[in-house]
Amino acid sequence: MKIRILGNRIRLRLTQAEVASIGSYEEVKETTQIGNNIFGYSLSVHASDKDVDCRYADGEIRVSISKAVAKHWAESNEVGVETDNDQTPFILIEKDFKCLTVRDGEDESDMFANPNTVC
Prior knowledge:
CATH topology: Gyrase A, domain 2
Number of domains: 1
Number of strands: 8
Oligomer: single chain
CATH class: Alpha Beta
Number of helices: 2
Shape: globular
Distance between the termini: 22 Å
CATH architecture: 2-Layer Sandwich
Strand order of the largest sheet: 1-2-8-7
Radius of gyration: 15 Å
Strand content: 35-45%
Helix content: 10-25%
């Protein structure tokens, strides 16, 4: 899972295996060590009716989606799930596509096939 943050916008991009985990209601989590500190971010599934939720605690951004949204997203061709534009932070969760140009050092073996043919 990758994270991109710009202001009050958070974007998570997941591989095929990670999307399958979310479809099975399993948490996906990543961490990055910064000096002696650990920054974490996760995507999990919750039981409430709220489609997407985001919380920050103990050095971790915790995004969660409802079971209904998780199941539909994982089993469909739908690329992304997002919050309303007026929600802070705005959250976008997407299936991660293979790049159209090869990049050294990148393992894209578990990414989704890119539907585009040119950049």
